[in-house]
Design a protein that fits this description.
The complex is a heterodimer of chains A (143) and B (157). Chain A is mainly α and 143 residues long. Chain A has helices spanning 3-26, 34-59, 81-104, 108-127. The longest helix of chain A has 26 residues, at 34-59. The longest helix of chain B has 26 residues, at 46-71. The chains are: A mainly alpha (143), B mainly alpha (157).
Chain lengths: 143, 157
């Protein structure tokens, strides 16, 4: 995969993550689950910021940034805080794999960006009460 | 809806990157500065150096943890998962050498020793990220960045 293809794939993942977190935020009570609401809101803003940065990185290369889909199929209805947390964990896990792939397909400042994103996604997993991993974003390396 | 990317690397891919210059030619960026046209030399490849540096840093961390556990057995339960993590990382970075390291004498109190270990782990996470930036092979960079992320996770957990 070329650098531009990998950047576009990462942008597509950010679009999806933003959609997921929008849904997660709508299913999280700020009064009943203030800590989770704060975390979900923070991650929503983080992915929006990354989306904007990726649009610039792609545009700077003369390419047209991939657009968000009109809608995304969510795997389940979020009926509880546990379900919201689980969905957010899945999202960060998938994004970590996308960022790790971007690390492999970039160099210099683009790779710096990908490494930072991977580290932040790994930390987000802990903030969501997930367990530490051996190879965040690259689970197949665990053998 | 969120799809995982097709894994771009395996342990074998990393091993190839460390042992064969041709493995790097698939990258669209930062190609090898010179393609050997004569007999192969015995000089180490740049990525072998990068992997060697990362491996040495992890081996040093393992020595620090082992010395800490020996001096403060009560920390064994807490620190053993760190050893398991580093062992998994060293397996991926195995380039056939047999590095060893000597650790400083741990502080006399367990709390201070624990803080030293956590501080050293934080520094290791930063150094692994630095080596990921330096790697010519994308597969090696990905593995090193993932190791840095794993150490970071345990530091903040």
């Amino acid at each position: 995969m070329s650098t531009i293809e990998s950047l576009q794939a990462t942008l597509a993942a950010e679009h999806a993550a933003i959609f997921v977190y929008g849904d997660a935020g709508a299913h999280t009570s700020q009064s009943a689950e203030p800590e989770l609401f704060t975390t979900i809101s923070m991650l929503y803003r983080t992915h929006r910021a990354r989306r904007d940065q990726l649009r610039l990185l792609i545009g700077d290369r003369g390419a047209t940034p991939v657009a968000a889909a009109a809608s995304y199929e969510l795997p389940s209805v979020l009926r509880s805080a546990v379900a919201v947390r689980r969905q957010a964990l899945r999202t960060e896990e998938t994004c970590a794999e996308v960022y790790a792939a971007l690390v492999a397909n970039t160099a210099t400042t683009d790779r710096d960006w990908a490494i930072s994103a991977l580290l932040e996604a790994a930390q987000a997993r802990i903030q969501l009460n997930g367990s530490p991993e051996v190879f965040p974003g690259a689970p197949e390396l665990a053998g | 809806m969120l799809r995982s990317p097709v894994p771009t690397s395996r342990r074998t891919a990393i091993a190839l990157a460390l042992s064969a210059p041709l493995a790097l030619s698939a990258c669209e960026f930062d190609p090898p500065s010179a393609v050997p046209t004569e007999a192969p030399t015995t000089e180490p490849l740049p990525d072998a150096d990068v992997a060697g540096v990362a491996r040495a840093q992890i081996v040093q961390m393992v020595a620090t943890i082992e010395a800490t556990i020996e001096a403060h057995p009560r920390l064994r339960r807490e620190l053993t998962p760190w050893l398991d993590l580093h062992d998994a990382h060293l397996t991926v970075l195995d380039v056939g050498d047999d590095q060893t390291a000597t650790a400083a004498i741990p502080p006399p109190t367990g709390a201070a020793a624990r803080q030293i270990v956590l501080g050293a782990e934080g520094a290791l996470a930063s150094r692994l990220a630095d080596t990921a930036r330096q790697a010519a092979s994308g597969d090696l960079a990905r593995a090193l960045a993932s190791m840095s992320a794993a150490v970071t996770q345990r530091v903040i957990a």
